[in-house]
Amino acid sequence: EIVLTQSPATLSLSPGERATLSCRASQSVGSSLAWYQQRPGQALRLLIYDASSRATGIPPRFSGSGSGTDFTLTISSLEPEDFAVYYCQQRSSWPLTFGGGTKVEIK
Amino acid sequence: EVQLLESGGGLVQPGGSLRLSCEASGFTFTDYAMSWVRQAPGKGLEWVSEISGSGNSLHYTDTVKGRFTISKDNSRNTIYLQMNSLGPEDTGIYYCAKERAYNSFFDFWGQGTLVTVSS
What average pLDDT does range B41-60 have in this prediction? Predict the structure, then answer.
């Protein structure tokens, strides 16, 4: 099983600041990695797939990078609605796995 | 508009069974694989099971193999998760999710249904 480790667990930032979230895989997943956003009371939202492709309707302040074992989700300038929990997920091999999540909170 | 509506959750005793349903609309149901993903209270996401668009390919995480069965009814645009021998570790919100393309990621999610396993 591929283990995804996300860091930091919590990120405390102010609106307008840049957020950098990390996801490290226990073995190479190539570019088969996605990022999701979870906000209370809302459906989970696909942000980035295939490591760096933005999903439909996702604003350009969200970007993904990386390949192999190290991946990054960057939010260039935090909007109030971006304070949420973010998960990475791989589908390079079964079972599909998610990282433990990074909570982006208001400082 | 894609919609996924889960149902069937509830309180069940350890060792009991439950069947979850996820009714889909707004897309060609047989063209896309779908999964169940769960979230224990206060915890992260855990993928549980996936069924292909045709229904011919099934996958499970190890902790539910032999206890859970995923299936689909194309006439009802619905996928199911039959859960047997439930334990407290199965407690959580169960989401169904649709893949955006073949062997790809989940572009639409339901709101989830809560399963509580407790005596």
Answer: 97
